[in-house]
Model the fold of this input.
Amino acid sequence: MSQPLHRRVVPETYVQLLYDYLKAHGHDPVSVLAEPWPQPDPNGAGGIDVEHWEHLLATAAQQLGDPLLGIHLGRTISPRHFGVLGSVLLACNNLEAALMRLERYLRLVFDVLPMYRREGQGWVEIVWDTSEYQPGPLVNETGIVAMVQFCRDLVVGVVDPIQIDFNHLGPTDPCPYEEFFACPVRFGQAQAVMRFAPDVLAMPLKSPDPALITLLEQHADRLLAQLPQQDEMVEQVRRSISRELHEGEPSIERIGARLSLSPRTLQRRLQETGTTFRGELNLVRHELALSYLRDPRLQIVDIAMLLGYSEHSAFTRAFKEWSGQTPLEARQNQSP
Done:
C-alpha cells in the first residue's frame, strides 16, 4: 500500500498553544499533560502525531472539566503558534492572499488533510477533505475555531462565517458553537467546511509584521551584496526573485511581468548574458539559504517556506544537490 501524502502531524509550535493556554489559566501544563513542553525539531522534520494531539486535548479537557475546550483553546491562537508562516501571512495585502498562501503552505502547520477552496453563488468555502482520514473531534473543533479566530485577528473589519460544518457528531446543545461563530453550525456532515460571504476575501489586513519584512530584506540585501556584479538585466532578475520568493516559487512569467518583459524576451535576454532563469533562481535560493541558515531564529522548515518550497524535503534535496550536504549539516558545520 502506498504511503499517504500527508504525514498526519502538527508542528510543535501549534501544540504549544495548549501548553500556553494551561499556563495562562494557572495550571502546570507539564503536570496536567504528563509531558514536557514540545520543542521544534531543528531539521523541520519533527511534528506531533495528530492522534497524540487529540490525546493531549482530551486529557486537558478531562482534567479541566471543559467539554468546550476546542472553542476556548482555539480562540487564543496567535501568529507565533504558526511559526514563521504566521508572520508571513501577516505580510499579505488582504484575506484572500493570506488564505491562498495558507493553502500553499498548509502542510507546515497542519500536515493532516488536504485543504482547498470552492465557490458558489454568494459564497466561498474552505474545505478539508476527510475522505481518507478523519481527525478526532477536539482536533477538528480547535482547528476550525483557530482558523476563524486567526482570520478575525488578521483583518480590519468583521469576519464572521455564514455556515460551519463539522464532520464529527456534535453535542446536544450547539448554542456555544453558534455563539462563537455567529452563524449556523452543523455536525455530522460529510466534510469539514467554513463558508464565508465572498466580500470578506477583499478585506485588508492589519499592519504587516515589520520584523519579518526587515528580516527578509536584510537577508536579500546581504545576498545581493555578496554576489559578483553582473549585467543590469541579471541584477534586476536577481532582485525580483529575492523579493518574490516568500510568495512561493517565482515563475518566469511573474518575474517577466515585474520587469515588463514577456517570458520569451526575458529568457532570450538572460541567454545573451550567458545564464538562464532557472540558473538564476537556483543561485538566489542557494545564497539565501546559506544566509538564512546563519540565523538561529529560523528552523529548516521555515527556510524552505521562505525560499518558495511547499515542503522542507524538496528544499533538502535541492540544497544537497547544490552543496553536497543537507541544510542541517551545513548549519552544524558553519563557524560561529
